[in-house]
């Protein structure tokens, strides 16, 4: 495993395990246990996913000491605001069966994010969270946060994959010492990422799978990545990316397939903001 240091000195694994849309709770619990036993140390969930309790059980079943793990969850927008955030945090902690979090993120850049951030700063100072950050924030919103809060976000988790590479966003995050973390590293399986001819040729060159090439490409860009799978074979495959490196030609070629377009939702679209508020 490779690690990266956050802007507050906390060390975070470069590759973790995501549980988005793991709605079968028994399957989620087993997958988390399988992932940790396969070597993953970063587990990423969210209150909105509805599976924090299953994640907590999977962590407990793994038999791995808590201090070896890096656990992330996220605050949903309906829980925004100072008091609501504190209550939501305690509920997430209870569901996970943990005494502290390694990383707590504001899930969406809407509602009273400033009230939420002040609560998260307080929880951080109390030692209940080792690092705090955001998710789905565009550079302008993030700069606003940097300028007008006491504690700068340690992480911004955003959609990043070969077809939406976030090149300018990545540079902004690097310039401002905020870690770039990817969600949906395979673009939710859309745009036929696993059938892409270029990625398949690179995979054959290194005797790896397309998934492994994509994850390695992300890691070499300094981006933390959290692939998801419920299949043990793929769980093990996805973490087996630290025994090879992509060369400059590979990196340049992958850059050529960037469309700069989301495969999910445009967070700057007012209708999308309304849609999120109704979830």
From TrEMBL:
SUPFAM superfamilies for this protein: NAD(P)-linked oxidoreductase (SSF51430)
Record-listed substrate binding positions: 107
Keyword check for Oxidoreductase: yes
Keyword field contains Oxidoreductase: yes
GO MF, any single term: oxidoreductase activity, acting on the CH-OH group of donors, NAD or NADP as acceptor
Domain (NADP-dependent oxidoreductase): residue spans on this chain: 17-258
Record InterPro entries: AKR, Aldo/ket_reductase_CS, NAD(P)_OxRdtase_dom_sf, NADP_OxRdtase_dom
Pfam family name, one: Aldo_ket_red
UniProtKB keywords: NADP, Oxidoreductase
Descriptive protein name: Aldo/keto reductase
Organism field: Pustulibacterium marinum
């Amino acid at each position: 495993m490779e690690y990266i240091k956050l802007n507050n000195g906390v060390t975070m694994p470069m590759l973790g395990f995501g549980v988005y849309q793991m709605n079968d709770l028994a399957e989620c619990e087993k997958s988390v246990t399988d992932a940790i036993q396969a070597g993953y140390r970063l587990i990423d969930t969210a209150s909105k996913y509805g599976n924090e309790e299953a994640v907590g059980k999977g962590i407990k079943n793994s038999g791995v000491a808590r201090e070896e793990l890096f656990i992330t969850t996220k605050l949903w927008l309906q829980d925004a605001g100072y008091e609501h955030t504190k209550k939501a945090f305690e509920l997430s902690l209870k569901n996970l069966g943990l005494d502290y979090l390694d990383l707590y993120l504001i899930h969406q850049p809407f509602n009273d994010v400033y009230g939420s951030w002040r609560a998260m700063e307080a929880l951080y100072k109390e030692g209940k969270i080792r690092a705090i950050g955001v998710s789905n924030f565009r550079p302008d919103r993030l700069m606003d946060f940097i300028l007008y809060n006491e504690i700068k976000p340690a992480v911004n988790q955003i959609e990043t994959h070969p077809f939406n590479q976030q090149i300018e966003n990545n540079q902004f995050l690097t310039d401002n010492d905020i870690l770039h973390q990817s969600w949906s590293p395979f673009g939710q399986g859309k745009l036929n990422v696993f059938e892409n001819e270029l990625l398949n040729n690179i995979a054959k060159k290194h005797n790896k799978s397309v998934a492994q090439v994509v994850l390695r490409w992300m890691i070499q860009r300094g981006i933390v990545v959290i692939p998801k799978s419920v299949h043990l074979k793929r769980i093990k495959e996805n973490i087996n990316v630290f025994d090879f490196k992509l060369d400059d030609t590979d990196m340049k070629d992958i850059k050529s397939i960037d469309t700069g377009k989301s495969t999910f939702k445009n967070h700057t679209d007012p209708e999308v903001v309304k849609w999120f508020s109704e979830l």
